[in-house]
Amino acid sequence: MPETSPIVYDLDEAQQVVTITLNRPTKLNALTLQMLDLLEDAVAAAEQSDARVVVVRSASERAFSVGADIDMLASFSAEQMWREWTVRGHRAFDRLANVRPPTVAVLRGYTLGGGLELALACDFRIASDTAELGLPEVGIGTIPGWGGTARLVRTIGEPRALELILTRRRIDARQALALSLIHDHHKPEHLEGALQKLLGELRGGKPVAVQAAKQLVRAVSQPGPSAALEFLASGFTTGTADYRSELQSFTRGEQG
Question: So what's the pLDDT on residue 220?
Fold first, then answer.
């Protein structure tokens, strides 16, 4: 993928690490359909490589990702949301969640909405102290629609998942660690060192055993019917007057 791409793929053959970089810094890595498709392509390439670890990170100091591109969402009908946005997002994130090597999300700055759902699709999440995490979707009349509800419940439990989703509360890295939403957090200047230490530990696992372990752990906590329900709920909510009204407010810049 060219360096001007909003998703940049890099394979370090010597270190056996694939890095997938969200590269739309002027929009705080707001996710588009193109980015979802490129993300899926990058994960597929990682799957075919000899990489022992996959890292997902941002080219921006300000944000991992603020989630969905609101301008793009405003142009979609409810049917398009279901057929295009939700389906393609689930496909990309599910592929990431099930990729053979262990995956690490490196979080700096805003990690909101679909950005947090992307991080949840990774096996490990390490954060800078600058990270700010949250799921604001119900405030604009919709829901986390890319597997976020199921993955969040499996990660922090039902009561805390409901609290984050329904209050739309943004939390810092310290609070996220207390909830087990992330695995560790560090001062910005120490984040790269912590990442390299984790990568060194993960590279030591034998590929077949690592893949088997991931599959066994995942089998214990599969989402069952919740994924199908999320598809239906996402399509339904985006057809409501509340959603359309709030979306128009966002595109006019009336919301923070």
Answer: 75
